[in-house]
Amino acid sequence: MKPDSTQRPIRVVLADDHDLVRSGIKALLSMIDGVQVVAEARDGQELIQLVESLEPDVVMTDISMPRMDGIAAIAHIHARQPKVRLLVLSMYDTVDFVKRAVANGACGYLMKDAPPFELEQAVRSVMATGSYFSPTIAQRLLQPSEPTIDDELTTRQIEILKLIAQGRASKEIAFELGLSPKTVDVHRARIMERLRLNDIASLTLYAVRKGLVKP
Question: Which residues belong to any copy of the HTH luxR-type domain (predicted)?
Fold first, then answer.
């Protein structure tokens, strides 16, 4: 059933750091009656700025993006504009990602390999009912989950782990976060102890698996 042509279109802001992926998703969304992509962002900071200026109905965002990731952007937008429907479109299907997204304000989660018709289902569902989770994600949520990264590490430790995984030295991390190099080293030791990991390579693999950095 097509929407009434007199109704106001559902205005969407789309965020993904890959231009080709974003263009493909935009093309699919533009084919849906009553849906209008009003802006595109390449990272979380740009997304926040666009949402503040355009006040869309729906935000569809990837998780892993430069400068500010999708989870942080979702949290920021949800705190300031709670009426905006925040829908994650991601390649990550672990319960950890889904729960982090929802805890920060996402109302839906869709996989990037989902069939195109699911895009319309997701957009219409979050507008009509306030939520949408693809069948794959719903199934994951029913399975026992491993501890999330928020269960295992503090916010500061997550920040430091992300920078370690990007290959940054203690002095660089200290400068960026306004800490002393010694404090960074203490945090790194505590992260290793808490995660039971013994080297930087293992920390990096953990950060990739949790989606803090891209492979």
Answer: 146-211
Same domain for 189 and 103: no
Q: Which residues span the domain enclosing 174?
A: 149-209
In a domain, 97, yes or no: yes
- Token representation of residue 63: 């998780």
Q: Which of 102, 52, 46, 103 is nearest to 77 (CA)?
A: 52
Dist CA 26 CA 41 (whole Å): 12
| Structural Rg of the chain based on CA atoms | 19
Q: Which whole-number Å values give the CA distances from 207 to 63, 93, 191, 199, 202, in the listed order?
A: 14, 15, 12, 13, 9
Say how many C-beta atoms besides its own lie within 10 A of residue 33's C-beta.
12
Alpha-carbon span 198 to 189, nearest angstrom: 9
* Domains identified in the chain, total number: 2
